[in-house]
Amino acid sequence: MKNLRKRIVQNGLKYSEFAEMLGVSRAVVSNWARERNEVPAKYIDKINSILGEEKEYGDGKQKIIDFISKTVPNDFTASHISMTFDSDGSAIIKIT
User: Fold this and answer.
1) Ramachandran bin of 78, using left for φ above 0, alpha for ψ from -120 to 50, beta for the remaining angles
2) Which residue has the higher pLDDT, 11 or 18?
3) What is the rounded average pLDDT for all residues in the chain?
4) What's the whole-model pTM score?
5) Domains of the chain and any CATH numbers
6) Is the pLDDT of residue 58 over 50?
7) Chain-centre distance of CA 9, in angstroms?
8) N or C: which end of the chain has fewer CB within 10 A?
9) Are 38 and 26 in contact (CB under 8 A)?
10) Secondary structure of the chain as H, E, C letters
């Protein structure tokens, strides 16, 4: 997968955080990011969802930003936003 390293960094994630979201080891993510190993097809949609680039939305990052701006009070300050997935595939957005 091209630009995986860049996409992870642009989303403010560490390899270990990203790996946990996917249910794989940090070493696996590192090998994918360095393009040493091909990302298995079963992870592509989940990766795109985590990194905010879902195929069906076009610009997933903007969708998430729009959702948060409508949901979170204007005076709320966040230092970190993360997204994980439930066992049923539902997204869980944590804002701290």
Assistant:
1) beta
2) 18
3) 79
4) 0.55
5) 4-95 (1.10.260.40)
6) no
7) 10
8) C
9) no
10) CCCHHHHHHHCCCCHHHHHHHHCCCHHHHHHHHCCCCCCCHHHHHHHHHHCCCCCCCCCHHHHHHHHHHHHCCCCCCCCCEEEEECCCCCEEEEEC
